[in-house]
Amino acid sequence: MARRCVRRFGITPARYDVLYAIFKGHAKRQRDLWSMFHVSRTTVSRMVAALETLGLVERSRPGGRASRSIYLTRKGERLVVEAIRGCHRAMLLLFESLYLSVRHRLHRACKVAMELEDPISWVAKEFGDRSWFSYPYNHPEDVGGPG
Q1: What phi and psi values does residue 4 have, to the nearest 5 degrees?
Q2: 14 near 139, Cβ under 8 Å?
Q3: pTM listed for this prediction
Q4: Contact at 8 Å (CB) between 5 and 87?
């Protein structure tokens, strides 16, 4: 579903996640991204470079710091807002199809997870996934450069 929602913007769900993290202020440096998503520095660097090539982000290395700062461009901000709007109806339909009791439990779990420092690992652990991160951040478009 996520891939379908963001396909029209020419990005993958993984790239959208990176843009959204920057948009929400959770990631101000590349280092924030690789620690947040539990992926290698190389993967993050390639993904950010691809987003930079697409004109969605800008990078800078202020004052001799090792980790680059990342900013959304206006085009990047518009893309995130349009993607949120574009996927909103699809997500509503998905959640409306759940039993009310399941919807309430899912909502509570999401609230708890978002308060945690590392919600992705917590959710994965709760569902029995012992791997570091199971989201496909190694999609060829994400690792190999722009789309």
Answers
A1: -65, -40
A2: yes
A3: 0.63
A4: yes
CA–chain centroid gap for 3, Å, is 12
Among candidate residues 36, 37, 56, the one with its CA nearest the CA of residue 48: 56
Helix ranges (DSSP H) in the chain: 2-7, 13-23, 30-37, 41-53, 74-96, 100-115, 119-126, 140-143
The per-residue pLDDT string of the chain (147 residues; one tens digit each, 9 = 90 and over) reads: 667 778 888 888 888 888 988 998 888 888 888 888 878 888 888 889 999 999 999 988 766 666 678 999 999 999 988 888 877 677 777 777 778 888 788 777 777 766 766 666 666 666 655 444 444 444 445 444 444
Q: What are phi and psi of 81, to 5 degrees?
A: -65, -45
Distance CA 15, CA 22 (A): 11
CA dist 142 and 126 (Å) reads 27
If residue 129 lies in a helix (H) or strand (E), which one and from where to where?
Answer: none
23 touches 57 (CB < 8 A): no
H or E element in which residue 59 lies: strand 57-60
Copy the structure tokens of residue 123.
């959710």
